[in-house]
Every structure is written in structure tokens, then in C-alpha cells.
Amino acid sequence: MLFAAMDAPRFPLMRLPVACSQNVLCILRLTQLFEISLASKKSKDLVRSLKIKTSEFSLHLYGSYLSIQLRFCSRNEESNLKSYLIYYISYSHEMDERTFLNHLKFIFNTEKITVYFGWNFELFDFKSILEGRQDVESINFLNLNEGEGQRILNIFKPSKIYMYIVTKPRDLMIQNVDDLRANEMNISLEDLLIMNIKNLETRCSMVPAQVLNRFLKLWTRGSNLQLERLELDFQVDGGFTNEEIFNRIKTTQKTTVRYFKLVSGTRKITGGLDISRFDGTMATILLRRLGGFINWIDFEFEILVWHDHCIAKETDR
């Protein structure tokens, strides 16, 4: 500990003017700042006043094991090139896990957290830490059955979900989620039509051209009103043509450069085919052939919906 030597000379840190105390604290390591913040409410507020902010604040649950990871940008640089990592398991002798989590969030000026659910996470009593929290921005699942997923989503409502495999996506698709990404998902036309998700990105099994055509036709008539972006990566036996996907759908070839606003930033969009919804909202369809093996062709299907809040400028990048 920082003050382990009881006979060491005492330094009147808390008696100094605030600006002087802050100058002293600025030379200390992050672990030392944490230890000082435990001394009193005044020292806790003083550490917070340094306005050190995490670039990433995440909880990792593996079996009965909990770790909290904080990532910081260097305080001497404006870039993210240099980072510090701090790992804490549990300070049970000082406070319970929930209080500990809130303490770290407070002193390091953190608004949102990310939770990673690993193997056998159900062995950990995460409900006592996470229930009722409004600050969980995203959750990541390494391995999950649908029952556990629904139980977690009943405890708190993240805006972003990242999953490895989703075999029964129906209950997940009806959640009001801003961003859902999966490495693999068994998805049907019915799943696509009922989803409330704004941004969905996943690899899935073969999607017939007729399914994509039907989905686009229904979108032009008013389905999936809040959809902003959909990306499906899949394989097709022998491939398909634009005519199969856009059969009886009016399209316009775009050659101009446009900018689309995503959660992760602004993206430059070149080309694509535009279609129009009944209310005048435009969407751009991008089809990319990624390669393949023998007769199996890898395709990427993407739709970008140009809501007013999704339209960006080059200067927004």
C-alpha cells in the first residue's frame, strides 16, 4: 500500500489548496490514486477533480471469477497510442463488488460500462452487481443459450449486444437495441421483419435471393421503420444476380460520394443501388462478392437507410 510505512513522514495533502493538491496527485500512478481515493470522501472527490477519464471500462465474468478492466489514454498525450491497464478482482475487505464498481466509475469519471460474459458466467452472482443499472452500454457473450440471454436482458437493457452464436434469435430480435452483432446467426425472413434493432451485423447460413427480394419489398411498404443498417454475410451455391434480388423493385444507380453516420463514426459510401420507401425515405443497397470455394460464393448484403440523423458530412469524420 502507498502508506504502508507507519513511521514515514506525513504529508499534509488534504490541507493544501485544491490546486496544489491536484498538482501533487498528477505525478502519482493510477493505482496510487485509487488507494488515496479510499481514504475519505474528501480524497475521493479530490481524485475525481483531476478529470481522469477511462477510454474503456469493462467487467469480465468467467465462472465464479470477476475482473474489472480500466483502460486509460495517457495523460501526457491526446492520442490513444499509449494506454495503462488496471485489473482488479475484488476488494471485499473494503467494500462489496457493486460499491467497488461505482467507486471506480466515480473517481475515473466514467459514464458507460461494458460487460463480458465468458464461460460458465452463470456461476457468478452478477445480478447483485448489475440489476437495475442504467449505465451498461454494451454486453458481449462468448457462449450463451437463449434462456440465459433472456434472463440477462430482463435484468438490464444495454444498447449494444455482441454475441458469438445465435441459434434462436426471435426473442433477441424484438429487443429495442441500437446495435446487435453476431459471428453466426440462424436467421429467417420472419426474424428480419419483427426486429426492432437499428443496426444488425451477422454472418448467417445461406440466404436465398428470394428472401432478400421479399425483405426489400416489404421495407419499401413500411416494415422495419427504425432500421438504420443491416449487414448479412453468407454463402450462396452458384451465386445470384441483381435482377433476382431487385425483381420488381425500382432502383437508382448512385455514383456520388455520400457520408453515413454510424455509432462508431462516419463512413464514406460510394456507389450502390438506391431504393425508396413509401414515405420518401431512401436506402442504399450494397452487394459485395468476397470470394468463395468451388460453387460456393461468399456474399455481403448491406442496406443503409438514410434517416435524417444518419446523413453526415465529410467534415463529420
UniProtKB/TrEMBL annotation:
Domain F-box: 10-60
InterPro entries, per the entry: F-box_dom, F-box_Sdz-33, Zygotic_Embryogenesis-Asso
One Pfam family, short name: FBA_2
Protein name: F-box domain-containing protein
Lineage: Eukaryota, Metazoa, Ecdysozoa, Nematoda, Chromadorea
